Amino acid sequence: MKVVDTTFLIDLLRGEEKAMGKARELDAEGGAATTVINVYELFIGLHRAVDPSSRRFVEADRVLARLDVFPLDFASAKRSARYMAELISAGGVIDTMDVMTGAIAFENGSDTVVSRNVSHFERMPDLKVESY
Predict the structure, then answer these.
(1) Alpha helices in the chain (DSSP H)
(2) Stretch 102-112: mean pLDDT, rounded?
(3) Closest to 13 measured CA to CA, from 3, 26, 23
């Protein structure tokens, strides 16, 4: 199962055609997942951008209800710390939320993250990234 990143969720909620096409592709493959980190990022953006009574919150809940949502658990936190330490040692730190997303994906059996943020995810070991 592929894990979708926050960029994908935002684009999907905006009705962007490339994201909609990728969503149809993921459905045909058996569905997708996201992480609790991506839910957090998505709702920060919604709270900053729209009125809390906006339908955007209902739409976000509807999209998220179709996905498995993987947690940040003990194993994911340890893998995330390892990834970040390796990135720091290599001189290429990336966003902590992306590192946690990648680690959660891997620990839940996914080796692929779907995102427009290719440059971050492609630098993590064990992961592939698909854009749309």
Answers:
(1) 6-13, 17-28, 36-49, 55-65, 74-89, 96-107, 118-121
(2) 97
(3) 23
C-alpha distance across the termini of the chain, in Å: 16
At residue 132 the predicted structure's pLDDT band, cuts being 50, 70 and 90, is very high
The answer to whether residues 7 and 97 touch, using CB atoms and an 8 Å cutoff, is: no
- pLDDT tens for 67-96 read 999 999 999 999 999 999 999 999 888 899
> Could you give the angle at the alpha carbon of 40 between the alpha carbons of 16 and 8, nearest 5°?
20
Indicate the residue type of 71: P
Domains and CATH numbers, the chain: 2-130 (3.40.50.1010)
118-125, long-range: CB < 8 A, 24+ apart: 120/94, 120/95, 121/5, 123/87, 123/92, 123/94, 124/83, 124/87, 124/94, 124/99, 125/83, 125/86
In a 13 Å sphere around the CA of 65, the CA atoms on its Cβ side amount to 6
Is the pLDDT at 52 greater than 80? The verdict is no
